[in-house]
What does this fold into?
Amino acid sequence: MAIVKMKRLRMMAMTADREVLLRRLQHMGCVEIVQPETDPDDPLWTGLTRPETAGLAAAHEEKNQAERALEVLKRYKALPKSGLLAPKPGVQEGDLFDQAGAKAARSMAEEVNGLDRRLAAIRAEENKLDTQRAVLLPWQNLDLPLETGSTGQVTIQLGTLPAALPMGQAEGEVQAASQLAELTEISADRDSRYCTLVCHASEAETVLEVLKALGWSRANLRDWTGTAAENLARLDKETEALKGESVSIEEKLAGMGENAPALQKLSDLAGLDASREECRGRLMDTGQTFLLEGWVPEESWPALKQELDKFPCACEVGDPAPEEYEKVPVKLKNNTLTRPLNMVTEMYSLPAYGTLDPNPLMAPFFILFYGIMMADMGYGLLMMLAGGIILKKKKPGGTFGHLCGLLVLCGVTTFIMGALTGGFFGDFLTQVVKLTTGGDFALPALFTPLEDTMMILVGAMCLGFVQIITGMAVSFVSKLKNGQVLDAVFEEVTWWVVFAGLGLMIVGITPIVLVIGMVMVVAGPVIQNQGFGKVTGIFGSLYNHVTGYFGDILSYSRLMALMLAGSVIAQVFNTLGAIPGNIVIFLIISFAGNALNFALNLLGCYVHDLRLQCLEYFGKFYQDGGKPFRPLNLNTKYYEVVK
It folds into this structure.
């Protein structure tokens, strides 16, 4: 339940052992490799160079190829279906790094992606044929070969006229222009009339001038040979052939699902290779040796040293200096109760190295406050069941695993608070008994949100006061450890005395303790500040602390507000469902309303609980700014590596 101590690692080893060492480090997963800080003015650094990183691009390309092939198989429903809660399958580390299997998987990926590219080319060709067919279709009744051109005596043109123009008018104007010309309509659609013009060459210019005035547009079909019908028949055959090939390829892709596991292994392997290549790019080479710098947890160093002793290398480890703390990565070490709170901490910001891990200090308050706001046995059961089933079946890790664990813990307190308030999906049981038997029934309750609102409000603010005092106590201890004695006395002890004095006055005891506290409030700025700051510091301290503590404590009224809102909304839906007097209608409306209420409260309670921790609590002692510890590890997407 603390921040893991880190050691700075510097290692010089032989270049010939570099790849083997990087694989061993990746296997152990306990070293974060960083880029050394070079000094260009130091002659010792001038001979060092960066390793080639061409392998990184190759690894990324291989991963992209595998992912693209998997996406193709998924598109054709070739991937084997896995259960919703099925965990990642395990794979032996040796099987994952097997190069023979990887080579076969690369061939599979190339084949799948090649088939997909061929399908894309077929679709493009089909679109092209469809476009050509659309051009030829209006001329399918023309028995004249399309390559037929004009001669020295006769002009022949194919073209279009607007569909709104009556064909009789067009023919009449052509005849009026020349008796040696004939305009024939081949077909027509909504937009155009498709026509042929045949006239004597001597009259062509006059006739074409008339037609252009009518909207004549010449059709460009000179690249075709044969009649339109013959070309359409050829296009249909080509289209059918392409469709047949497309169906064949799709059927082949749909039957390649057995290749998916190999492709998934290839994707994971390429991802591991890319991670290793990225770390390789952070090393420094001398030609025969290389320099590695990084961070290793203190608890992992003995095992790492034992492994490194097998190689001819020189290692140096040491504790980071205080001025290096901002560069030191942070790894949290928690137990089952506090580990799920990593999600909250990481969402806010990891603690700075050398400070406190907030999870143990936050866990009891966060889990309790969530239960107070949710406060329903039915909702608590759903949370425990959902989180527990996912954890058992899927065994998730990372943030999702923390979320499921937090769901279970908050579900426990939600159930307990629901038992204290008598809530089970609101007053669900009460309404069910009334509808089925006509009798009255209510779960026993120590207090209820609707009847004991003021008591719950006071209790919520008292809990808030306890959390604020806890934060002040943590801050007090931290300041004493850092030698900030005066700050600890005048920031924390002073206001504890003030709070104690106020409490004693409320119960009717002498105000002498409050007077002492006020004297300390005045003395703090006078002792710590200089000049006119002594006066302004007094007013600033009074204003900031009085309004700050009052506002912080008042913020905890949201515990009562969300408890009341959730309870009222559930009861409203249950009442609406009971109005028709039919148990089936009641169940439908009640389940729908409670599902909506549960979903809203699940998120709303988390957001408000998070706000109380981050603003009201963390502000008292928390020092953020830590960067996560990211070691070279066997991080995979599809398989769980069994070492």
